[in-house]
Amino acid sequence: MKHRAFSASSTQLIVGTAVFLTLFANFALFRNLIDAFASAPWGYAHIASMAAVLLCALTFLLAVLCIGRATKAVLVTLLMVSSVTAYFMDTYNVIIDSDMLHNAAATNAAEAGDLMSWRFALYVLLLGVLPSALVVLIEHQRKALKTAVVSRAKLLAIPLVAAIGLMLLSSGFYASFIREHKALRYYSNPATPIYALFRFADEHIAGASRPLQAIGTDARIPAADIERELIIMVVGETARADRFSLNGYQRDTNPELAKRKVVSLSHVSACGTSTAISVPCMFALSTRDDFDGKDALATENALDVLKHAGVNILWRDNNSSSKHVADRVETQDYRSPDNNTICDVECRDEGMLVGLQEYVDAHPSGDILIVLHQMGSHGPAYYKRYPDAYRKFTPTCDTSQLDDCAPETIGNAYDNTILYTDHFLSQAIDFLKRNDSRFETGLMYVSDHGESLGESGLYLHGLPYFVAPETQTHVPVILWFGANYEEADNDSLLAIRNEHLSHDHVFHTLLGMFEIESAVYDPQKDILQLARSRNDPQK
């Protein structure tokens, strides 16, 4: 009988893979550990201890997952997954949790292409394909059942006991680490991505399978409200509040909006640090503290309540999707030239304004809400997010490989995206002004989350909220109202422009803009009502 040149037992395959993953798939973890502990007494000794604990944990995990003939399939899958997650963690210092997987699942081909590079291919080849090929080529030695059971018991017991022993030897350090450096644990690869995958599957499958819960079915527009509303809500993408000159940024990134009577709310917190969380959350009745992805999938949102009241609703999307927010209203995809007439290297947000007048004219009765979901400042390919005419701040980082660029060039490219958003919002306001004679008009711009641009070695977004820097959670909100919108004019909003607000206010503000009466409407969370109360304390 002909044997392969190399053979190994399950134990050898598992331990060998665990060693490989510890040494080569966890650079981000050890980089962050070194930053946190290298200067502390016995710092490197503690880091070495944690490396050993990680090896033990991975060995134990693989021993649990790798059973019989499935061993090679499991090892190959984990090697391939870890090669991909290692690239993103090493390159952008992000954490692959369930929220990040929600984002990845909603990413379209164009956005995914922006993240690909020669370095990504190298990671997949060296950390995924080649070791996977070796695992496949090595002959798997079979053992008698009794021997295999004893061997697996040892493989489970030895690393578990060793890990516990190491932690007890440095119990003070590990107690401090668990309390004060929780975020660092999320960099363990592939343990965290595996956990995130199971959690993502539970959230997505459980939420999608539940019957839809209706809310706000009592919603109505009072008979006294005889004026028609035309409101545009712009859902921004990856915009940071501190990069808007309206909020005090030293660069003039809002030259066009500054000429229009807008109010920029300067202290607004996002519901999440990713589109997949923040967009459903801002339209949900629940607050950030009690928001649950499974519940959101199975519960109606602000658009449904407005629809119950008879409002005409259109959602135009130049991003990946509405994240199920607009599942029950009219939607139009503006990511391709099929609908979007303004496209060059990619289709522009400005194209979503084309044809809006025809939509308005086609609805001679009832209020109208138009939601425009931007591509905005989506990274890492910031240089693609604006036409050449808005390449004002130079030189720019013209690659998705952000760690290859000088920080100022990344900032320049990002600021140009804000400059183009400024133009887009100004054009939307001008469209509304042209309809002032027939409607009470208004615009609300709300970004979904912010972005890290290299501060503290962090890029992009998506960190768990409890450790996310303010750059990822502090978002811009801009309001504008037309000449006929008397109840909440722009001047009254100036009284609250510096108050601390959040995405929790969006649901109720939307309903308030249309003067909706419903049991689900809370005027205390309506930004317009807050402004009125500041100007007239008796209200």
Topology:
Elements: E1 7-8, H1 10-24, H2 27-37, H3 43-65, H4 71-92, H5 98-105, H6 109-115, H7 118-137, E2 139-140, H8 145-169, H9 171-180, H10 182-185, H11 191-209, E3 229-236, E4 263-269, H12 275-283, H13 293-297, H14 302-308, E5 312-317, E6 330-333, H15 356-361, E7 368-373, H16 407-433, E8 440-447, E9 452-453, E10 459-460, H17 470-473, E11 474-481, H18 490-493, E12 500-502, H19 506-513, H20 527-535
Parallel strand pairs: 1-2, 3-7, 3-8, 4-12, 5-6, 5-7
Antiparallel strand pairs: 4-11, 8-11, 9-10
Helix pairs in contact: 1-3, 1-4, 2-3, 3-8, 4-7, 5-11, 8-9
What's the total count of β strands? 12
Count of separate DSSP helical elements: 20
Mean pLDDT: 89
Radius of gyration: 27 Å
Shape: elongated
Helix residue percentage:
40-55%
Low-pLDDT segments? none
Distance between the termini: 91 Å
Could you provide a short overview of the structure?
The chain has 539 residues and is an alpha/beta fold. It contains 20 helices and 12 strands.
Output the keywords.
single chain, 539 residues, two-stranded parallel sheet, 8-stranded mixed beta sheet
